[in-house]
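Possible regression after last week's pipeline update?

I re-ran a chain I had predicted before the update to compare outputs. Posting the input and the new output here so someone can diff against the archived version. Not blocking, just want to make sure nothing changed silently.
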Amino acid sequence: MRDHQPQPISLQQARELFAPWADAPAIVLAVSGGPDSVAMMWLAARWRRALKRGPTLHVVTVDHGLRAAAAQEARMVKKLAGELGLPHRTLRWRGDKPSSGVPAAAREARYALLAKAARGAGATHIFTAHTRDDQAETVLMRLSRGSGLTGLCAMAPQTERDGIMLARPLLEIAKADLVATLDKASIGFAVDPSNSDPRFTRPRLRRLMVELAEEGCDAPNLARLAQRLRRADQALQLMAEGAERFLALTGADPRDRRGGWDAQGFAALPAEIQLRLLLRWLDQVGTEGPAELGKAEALLAELTAAIGAASAAVSMAAKPAPARLRRTLAGALVTLERGRLRVEAAPPRRRPGGGCTSS
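New output (post-update):
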């Protein structure tokens, strides 16, 4: 395996990285003080200065209140942002912190604060400094949790969150190249000790990556895998949308006021398309979603068995009782009756005292 030789990011590369967002009115840069986000801020400032017209850049640092050094790091970011001519704000995650699941809770709080700041600044986008290394770690993390195809696509270059577009312009850039960029420009950065704390999943995977890379399972290959899976995932999503339209056109029964889908038409679809449609319907009408993949797979197996048993009986000229199934999942009610598959909002559950609850 040939080691990656770090190379500083040039101005031309920066222009190419940020070009898709040149027409945005304003962008929030999420800068923690670490090397990745500091490099992103420095590169974005250079990119913006090279444009005659372009988005207004706003730098935001979130202090989670978990480390004493975080306040000092925020001041460091503010100082550098000022030197680059960029406005800066520090937002704080206030209130009680959870005793477990801290990284996930901090992430949710961070994005909520960033989205609020973006709306206040009139920004349509938030830039985060996720790198190719982060992408590789995400693939491993989701693989270890048994994620499906969509989960293994890892992070998308751009997604919508809380009404704001979350963009990751550095997703194909190696972290080492960003460090080399800062070294060349003589710009300092902070080091978060939690990034090497073995109590957390990502630092443990980071250590494991060193050994995996020796077998060719390195960050470039894992990130490339995520790209290829995303391409396949997008194709399957289009197929699922087409299958849904097909079912709507061919399986309609004007005598059935409750609607639903033709069960035999559904059963004729490939299993992956069936699963995607079922998940989509559950998420559309359910009140407790999103539905867990494993539970949706188990429900699909029950549906397939019930529909298949009815078909087999018909082929043997038997007169079986109509296939019936009634299950709730993620706040949705799934029924199979008289050849129709329906997914509706589940009725409120009855409380022990006779009342009802929607949860």
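Follow-up from reviewer: compared with the archived run. The chain has a mean pLDDT of 90. Marking as no regression found.
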